[in-house]
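Suppose a colleague, Dr. K., hands you the sequence of a protein chain of 1111 amino acids and asks what its three-dimensional shape might be. Before reaching for any lab equipment, you can write down a predicted structure in token form. Begin with the sequence itself:
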Amino acid sequence: MKISDIKRVNSYFIELTSKKDVKIKANTPVKLFENGNQSFITPIDPSEIADVNEAIQVVPVNLKNEELLEQLLRRNLPRLAVVLNVTKKREMTLEVKVFSAEKPMDISIAVEDDFIDKIKKQMKLKSLSRAEESLTDAFLISIHNFTYGVMGVHTNANKDDLLERFLLLGKEGYLQIHRKKDENDQTYFVVEKLISSIKDNEYAFFLIKGAIRFTKSMFLEKARLETLAAMQEIGSTITGYMNTWEAYGQIEQEETFKKVKKAGVVPYTNKEYLPNGVLRLDIEDSEKLANLANYAEKGEGISICSVDPDDLFGSEITIDRYQAFTLEAKEITVELAEDIEPHKQRIYIKRVPDDAILDNSGYLFLSLAGDISRFRRRKEARDNILAGRSYMPHLAAILERQAISKPVKKRTDPISQTVREKIFPVHPPTPMQKEAIDIALNTPDIAIIQGPPGTGKTTVILAILERLNEIYDSSSGIFGKNLVSAFQHDAVQNAIDRIEIFGLPGIKFGQKRGEAGDDELIIEHTVENWMEEKRQELYQKYPEILKEKYMEEFDKIYVNYLYSANTTENTLKLLKETKELLLSKLSMELLQKIDKVIAELKLSLGGHRDPQREHLVKSIHKIPYVPQVFEDNGIEAIMEAIYRLKKEENSILQEDIDELMRLTIPPLNEQQFQMLRHIRKRILTKLIPAEEIFHTAKQKEDIVSLFTEISDYISADFNKSKSGEDAVLLDYISEFENSPLSIRNSLLDYVSVLGATNQQSVGRVISQLKGETEHYDNVLIDEAARSNPLDLFIPMSLAKDRIILVGDHRQLPHIIDEGIVKEIEGAHKNEDQSVSDKVNENIKKSMFEHLFQTLKILQKKDGILRTVTLDKQYRTHPVLGDFVSSNFYEKHGEVHIGSGLPAETFRHDLQGLEDKACVWYDIPIEKGAEVSGQSKSRPIEAKKIVAHLKKLMDSGESKGLNFGIITFYSSQVKAIHEELVKVGIATKNDANQYEIKSNYRVEVVNGKKIEKLRIGTVDAFQGMEFDVVYLSMVRSNELPDKTEQEKQRKYGFLMVENRLCVSMSRQKKLLIVAGDSAMLRSSGAEHAISPLVNYYDLCKGNKTYGKIIHE
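The predicted structure, expressed as tokens, is then:
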């Protein structure tokens, strides 16, 4: 509802003028106020104006309006005002609605199914599943952070209990709201009926303001109220799950600000742009630069400004103080192009905004811009969850293990015929895969799917998304109904790349830090790649179409001649293309006519023109500037031209693009049509060489006649030989090639799956595309055990119907700062030990594991299944699969992970290791011990692994196989790379970066490129798989291991079971662990590193598939 839709209250129209240009658009809600003897307006939503701190002074246009304005301001009654229109003379009309009173209100109003059935025709609801949204649009006004409504109370109502029954005024009627109580004396509000009219003076109306919302059912409102009661009972105690993480987040924020302060401010004395576009800043104070270098590395965000930030750094930095300073100082945020080398007394900057204005001297410091966005997103999501304002209002109660009311859902079958044929075409789903899909579809709130290595969780994700789209009510559109999120960009991309729902791709938003491009370009690339794939699929399926493409190609030539400004040389070129294209199609008579015209026109040909540029020129010519023609498809023609202009990525054209965008809002007046004609001519002047420009496109009549004759001839021939179905198919392909903008727009209307990291699920572009519908019906989070709970709150707070967490708490966990944990513990050291234990549990367990255990508890209370563990792996050899199952899952009381494929599937012929699955490569300490430093390494182990690897990769038996080398230490990664360089597998470039040589890096297998070799720490390998994996153990020492502290010093990362689980489950055919077996015989090894001890025993004891290599 808009302010202008409000009836039954006093309305006033005031004509005002401003002393300067008004930057407020029509239909913008504004605040009307006075300061001294002057009157001002400012948008209620600060995003509606460029400068949020600048109110607009206004004066009435005449005495009548002056008296009206004075009366309104003097009475100072509650009011809502909206700008109806703004003229170029700085005049505007304000509509003001005045109320007798204003009351704060925070309520949810339940909308039951029986009520929806009654009013669906009366309100012409487009979607029954979105009835609450339709009611919001018809009865509430959302402005910035508040919702407004107009409440009507009967004149005979009990003055002490006005909320027992009341009306909400809407566009075309009144909703009667009734307050009820349940058996637990819990109060909630429900829509009772829709009233079309009331008697005059029967009700008194006043303004309500706050958090007012419609919810789909009484159950959700009951759940919200029960959640609020539970949160009130928990209060601020640190043992509460969300309170623990609030404390963690607060300290993390403070530590971030301290880091920026410690890094300090560095003055620069000169700037210079280098030919590659990088900005160089010269620094005189090398000591301050050296200090900054301790905190900043390549890719780090840096703030640059001309105002000395001493005041900001002189006291405690806060979000508000930082933002106030950056606004005043006109700070810009850039990225370091290289690591800082203080002795050079300069730094290199990339990604300087095009419109940035930098002084020759100024100041730089670590940027907080990204951190502040991160902290704000976290806080908003957490606050919404705690206050029951998230789209799943009982989410906080679940996180705190509180049992509350749940809506009853109609059960959905997990497997449809389409899903069976598309997702499981060869093998049917396993019982646990089917159960996982069932739980995800039928959960009343959250489903947890634990996917141990190789158990097909990606397949399950695809089946879930496919099934959700099948059962969804698409009457209100399906764009962006599902969000796929994850902790890292790679995990999101891996999931999105495999998704195709209704034949359409998912679209990922956001990039890694340091990556080029923006979301708009990523969308374009995704669409273009999808279109190209579809074209190729069509050509492969209908190869005869290629033979008929001459029709389409000739149409391009013909249209090019008709719509382009043609020189003689261009005409010659088009005629020659026509002859070459249609040589076997035309009659001899027509070919002779073409030859004759070519002979008459023949001149030397000019330079080659880029086809993309020709498409662009054609699209500019198609822009109509005559009203009669414009009415047909003028807006579409302008948008097509803008689309192609943007693809040029040329700043010279940006002004033209901006002006064209302003002409896409009909209706256009005569002056705007003249402007359109001028812009069209100006763009063509920039695009076409001077000798080709005609103010009016000119064609010779004899050439037009010849092209028309050719067109008629081939059309008649085509119609004789081809069916109507062929013609439709050709038109379909032509649309893909010639109307990318319309295809893009259509695609975006039907793409149901969007992808983004936890943080970027509320990014700018994705939020703009979602529009007013900020939520998602379903939020699916992959690799959920790796996500920090503070970040997980963000996508989870957006879920309306279900949250599906997919991951595995036995693999890599989320990253925590032990220093922050100790600080929280220190703040509560005087409390009971159980408090410290609970805080540790809340923080060190991933939210995935916390909810996995929580939902099992809730299952016992309400009988609703919400958790499942996939129990059949298809990645690795059965011997290795059983090893992973027993050492990382069954020992914790979890189910046995069986193998779905026989051992024969994993056969190989690698020399000396034929058909082996588990190998220990023993490198004793006598050959060389570990090397200590900031990170551990063992050079001899790196050397032996690389020598062994090269022998395997150079053999013919390695064809079609790929290899991975995993270690727990970054220094060992470097040592392995150095050895790879020595044996000729890798090189080291001028930037000291290692690059695998192409013949070792990639291989084409069955027509597809595969990564042949990867080296890295375990963190880079989760979710990946390789035929052969080397695990470099690194640790080789003679330290004691009797106490827990001694064990930590001796074994280090080898004691982290999650990391071992990942590193020992990436292989398909063969796992080779390289290390010092004497470490396994130490007295504390059985307790500290039991999986490695057991693996050695497996290699030694299994004569069929195991082997020990002695060095």
